[in-house]
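Need a sequence for this fold. Nothing fancy.
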């Protein structure tokens, strides 16, 4: 199972970054990967056990990942696991750790892992999907920083 880590230092404190990143009402204002994002009915905001949907932009086939928060510690860490089975994904999970550096700066450590499908194409899909998702994650974190400077 490929594991990828994208680390980025942002010019904002960890608590603020955490709050904006997990605010689905503001998600599309900065997230360059998504065409839609929402908290599933029954919940009003992200939190432990909450289910969400993030749908990719059209150029990525509008693939939607339905996830559940399995960890949620504001200002520190959040983690999600995929609940549905969209094209090309057998399993997917991610965590986002926030580390306050002081002086209004923080590190974001985005770790994701996945298993691609179909199984017979994993030799090709794992490196391609891993690189694409890591590249998209770097773009998203750059966009988040621009939004936070706002």
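Here you go.
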């Amino acid at each position: 199972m490929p594991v990828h880590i994208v680390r980025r230092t942002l010019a904002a404190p960890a608590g603020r970054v955490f709050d904006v990143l997990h605010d689905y009402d503001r998600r599309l204002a900065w997230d360059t990967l998504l065409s839609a994002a929402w908290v599933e009915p029954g919940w009003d905001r992200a939190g432990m056990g909450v289910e969400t949907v993030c749908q990719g932009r059209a150029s990525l086939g509008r693939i939607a990942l339905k996830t559940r928060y399995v960890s949620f510690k504001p200002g520190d860490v959040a983690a999600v696991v995929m609940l549905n089975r969209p094209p090309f994904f057998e399993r997917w999970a991610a965590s986002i750790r926030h580390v306050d550096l002081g002086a209004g700066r923080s590190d974001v450590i985005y770790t994701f892992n996945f298993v691609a499908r179909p199984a017979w194409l994993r030799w090709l899909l794992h490196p391609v999907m891993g690189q694409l998702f890591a590249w998209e994650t770097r773009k998203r974190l750059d966009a988040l920083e621009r939004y936070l400077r706002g």
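For context: Residues 122-149 form the longest helix (28 residues).
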